[in-house]
Amino acid sequence: MKAFWKSMLRHPGGVIGLVILFITIFIAIFGPTIFPTSPWRMVQRPFLPPFTNPAVLLGTDALGRDVFAGIIYGARVSLLVGMVSTLVALIVGVPLGATAGYFGGRVDDALMRFTEFFQTIPSFPLAIVLVAILQPSIYSIVASIGIVSWPPVARLVRAEVLSLRTREYVQAAIVTGQSNSWIIWREILPNALSPVIVLASLMVATAILLESSLSFLGLGDPNMISWGYMVGAGRTVIRQAWWITVFPGVAILLAVLAMNLVGEGLNDALNPRLAKGSR
Amino acid sequence: MLKHFLLGLALTSSLCTAALAQEPKMGGTINAVIQPEPPGLMLALVQNGPTQMVSGNIYEGLLRYSKKLEPLPGLAESWTVSPDAKTYTFKLKPGVTWHDGKPFTSADVLFSVETLRVTHARARGNLVQVDKVEAPDDLTVVFTLKQPFGPFLGIFEVGSMPMIPKHIYEGSDIKTNAANNAPIGTGPFMFKEWKKGSFIQLVKNPNYHIKGKPYIDSIYWQIIPDAAARSVAYETGKVDVLPGGSIENFDVPRVSKLPNTCVTGEGWEFFSPLAWMWLNNRQGPTANKLVRQAIMYAIDREFARDVIWNGLGKVATGPSASTIKYYTDDVRKYPYDPAKAKALLKEAGYKGEKIRMMPLPYGETWLRWAEAIKQNLNDVGITIETVATDVPGYNQKIGEWDFDISYSYLYQYGDPALGVGRNYVSSQIVKGQQFNNVEGYSNPEIDQLFADGAVATPDSKRKEIYDKAQKILVEDVPVAWMLELQFPTIMNCKVKNLITTGIGVNDGFRDAWIDK
Amino acid sequence: MLSFVAQRIVKGVVVLLAIVVMNFFLIRLAPGDPAVVMAGEAGASDPQFVQQLREKFSLDKPLPEQLLSYVKGIVTLDLGFSFRQQMPVSKLISERIGATLLLTLTAFAISLVLGIFFGTLAARFAGSWGDSAITAAALVFYATPIFWLALMAILLFSVYLGWLPSFGYDTVGANYTGLAYVGDVALHLIMPAMTIGLFFMATYTRMTRASMLEVKRLDFVKTARAKGLRDNVIQRRHVLRNALLPVVTLAGVHAGTLIGGAVITETVYAWPGIGRLMYEALLQRDYNLLLGVFVVCSAMVLIFNLITDLVYRLVDPRIEFAS
Predict the structure, then answer these.
(1) Which of A202, B45, B469, B472 is most buried when burial is the number of CB atoms within 10 A of its CB?
(2) Domains in chain A: how many in total?
(3) Any CB–CB contact under 8 A between C39 and chain B?
(4) How confident is chain A (279 residues) per 10-residue block, as mean pLDDT?
């Protein structure tokens, strides 16, 4: 663990990513407590430019709502959607990939056909259709992002399991008569974890982007403010009020960037062999 | 003895004098925005907004209507009404031809009326009082009514009753006729090309029945799906005309201030769109009249007009827009008064039960408006949960009464008998519809008043009836009226004389010309 | 090799049929149907009218019957009739697919060429200031939401600078012919293609860089170097060629998904492609049209995957055509 942190901290990008990520998480958790003004409240005159009134630092939107409050509250939704939908994808993808890789043969064939099937349908259109069917809400958004993003997880886990399966300690466990699920959960998966963690961190980034795209198309949850919603709502007035669109856009960019940097840092830290090679 | 009601010709010539202040120039092309892409251009089959806008150039109706909603000659050059107000005789304009050169006659009118009764839901409703339609000769059409119907002369506008060619559709299945893809009308412009997803092109009808018109050679209706892209298209000179509603309201003030830009709110008098909140009168807190009144006091409609509609439009006082017949503002008033709203809620015994609100999924303006109202209602202690849907989901939920609060704006078609009564009389509580008494308001007195109002004569009697109806409705608040909407038409100032009637852009570009 | 291709095609057809069936039911789960939408737009929706429309669209028939007649159509390459647009779906799609292919393939070419170029450059000077700059830039493009980038590009290039048209496929009404027309379309193509292209470029840059560095350490490169081959030659002949394998794989996956995924770009730039068509069909519950677009997009994905596999096998002769 110590070695992990050490190598993580040696990676400057990873450090920057971690710092941004921690700040975002902090805002997401404590922001609304520190800053209780609801982002839906009309607090000032509409279209107030940023940096003119310290009470509404980032200006106001078309209804006179505080853009800064939107950024603070939006962090919660964006992060939540990013993480929970990734979790959904992992819950579907990891067991599926592990089963396919471990049992091989017909099971593998069937499960991989199933995965291919989902990879063949264009993912963004599928996500749009799913949200439209379930009607936009935080649950339908999380579910659809999860559903369109699990196939890469399954493939990765399958590949890892395939190679780990032949290792001696796994073979030994099989010989000693351990149950299949015990072997998968206790022997194989923990060792396949690091590439999955790396992939998951990148998936959180992609999910945040996906959520913002859905919101942009008007398929966001109307009861929760999110950064993508803010960009979508602000784009019609982008000419007279750039700040409504630019600040949440930058927020998305930073969050996604941070997740990617962390992902790369993790990659280097968890796969030291590669890290040295690429330096 | 037939009493001459209005002699159309005299009115036309007076309109012309006004237009001739500047000599119209021939030629040129107008680029206009159409949004969304219409599903088809055959006006007898499809009647959505974009179709009416484009096809109003291709087809014509028997009458047109001035901005004061007086009937003007269209394909009918004059008309008379019998003293018992049950027989309407129209004289058709001679020498009118369809785009394919065949003459337009009374047979076409009869055919159109019969067809529309099947395919055009609103026309069917409008024609309910018609007993028979006859054509004594090629240029005369006589409508005989079962009983007098006050608004009858108001149902002949092109979108409500377009004239379609008998020789093309007779004996064929009108829905699948190949001509629907290249519609044939009598209008000033002819269909040329439709490149799906890009544009619809109409060209000048060289044999139009008004000599010398139209002035313009060609119209391109451009299809641009994104509202921001539409305003950029105007800004960069790629389109000349933004019909009402083409760009988001928040962008209107900026675009209006661009150089060489002319803006008009005229051309919507016939439709007079009135926006309101549906309040479900059947169930939940909104079934209580006091809660509904509280909602009226709680919503800040001036704010909505000034901020969301940029000062355009008028705060509604009741079920009728101020532009239509028999409007009165002698009714209970609901100023923005949160304290009074709270008091009423308390009296009603409302305890913060959750109320589901479904915004109108028609773009940013309506979403922002719903958000502002949610905040208004929160402020007086009403708990709102917003339910998001897209257009089909909205249509279905409204039709099945699956909402507590929702939104809509409806056209009023100039007369309370055509566009107001339908939302409040109990015979119009029919599941599966979305333009009738969706809220489920039921009051025998109102039913009687609207029944009487439609057939009463003379006008003063009708006014008396509708005054009373408005008073009762405003007291009961079956729905929460918000604004009389105005959809400004924005155009490059070189486009002249675009909007000359109360039907506006939907009446076609017949009189428009380009100043070079 | 032929049997390999044949096998893949058979598998593809099965997958496509499964997609048809799944989407057929999926779409019908959504609230509202085309009759409700059209009646709503007509401004008059009495039940009689809605019923008329349902009958016209055959929506009053039982679901299995609808599915059967749809699948029967598909087998004969008939994608059905668009209720709303009053046209065969195949015609609507074929009218639009050209625009989408032009957009996505251009974007694809831009992203691949730029991505490999910058990736190679970064790997060549790994650890330097230039490497960091390229890597950082790639990451920023990767993290930027496409719709936001598109809006900013329109603001900059159309509104402030006035260099590029902000929407559409060509200048409507200009009636250019020949080269002038090609130029006109190209001008309209630049911004949308760059918007998509930059996003994917970022991926390829990072991938190429990583892959190059990986390959560099491998034995055969060391051998080549030991043999005294010049660095340029090593880079071109040995490193690049091998490093591109994963890039090609990824590109193949992207090429297919790009086609359906251009919804946002096509919407913001009013590009008349099938991504937009799909979104509009969804909002209008135009079942047949929506299904048709899904079928075509999925078929594209399968075709591109097949092409990728073939290319892969050409680039890397070690892989045999076994299934």
Answers:
(1) B469
(2) 1
(3) yes
(4) 72 86 92 86 88 88 91 92 94 93 89 87 88 90 93 90 84 84 84 85 90 88 89 82 90 91 82 45
Contact yes or no for B235 and C167 at CB 8 A: no
Q: Are strands B261-264 and B314-315 parallel, antiparallel or unpaired?
A: unpaired
Residues 121-140 of C with CB under 8 A from B: none
What's the rounded Cα separation, in Å, for the pair C158 and C135? 29
Interface membership of A133 toward B (CB under 8 Å): no
Domain locations in chain C as residue ranges? 2-75, 95-315
Measured between alpha carbons, how far is residue A137 from residues A9, A130, A203, B399, B400 in Å? 38, 11, 21, 22, 21
Q: What DSSP element (H or E) covers B364? A: helix B364-379
Residue C103 pLDDT level (bands cut at 50, 70, 90): very high
Q: Using the beta-carbon criterion (under 8 Å), do A121 and C294 form an inter-chain contact?
A: yes
Q: Which residues of chain C neighbour A212 with C-beta distances below 8 Å?
A: 145, 147
Residue in A223, A237, A239 nearest the CB of B386: A223
With cut-offs at 50, 70 and 90, classify the pLDDT of residue B17. very low
Sequential DSSP letters for B392-410: HHHHHHHHTT--SEEEEEE
Q: What angle (nearest 5°) sits at the alpha carbon of residue C297, between those of residues C292 and C303?
A: 125
Smallest Cβ distance to A137: which of B308, B361, B388? B388
- The parent domain of residue A260 ranges over 2-278
Q: Are B205 and C105 in contact (CB under 8 A)?
A: no
Q: Is the pLDDT of residue B215 over 90?
A: yes
The candidate with the shortest Cα–Cα distance to B428, out of C46, C40, C39, is C46
Q: Which option is the CATH number for C95-315: 3.30.40.10, 1.10.3720.10, 1.10.3470.10, 3.40.50.970?
A: 1.10.3720.10
Please state, rounded to an integer, the average pLDDT across all residues of chain C.
82
Q: What confidence tens digit (pLDDT) does each residue in A35-48 have? A: 888 898 888 888 89
Environment class of C161 (CB within 10 Å of its CB; exposed 0-12, middle 13-18, buried 19+): exposed
Is the CB of residue C255 less than 8 Å away from at least one CB of chain A? no
Q: pLDDT higher for B94 or C298?
A: B94
Question: CATH code at A248?
Answer: 1.10.3720.10
Nearest to C143 among A125, A231, A257 (CB): A257
pLDDT tens sequence across B305-357: 998 888 888 999 999 999 888 999 999 999 999 999 999 999 999 999 999 99
ipTM of the complex as predicted: 0.82
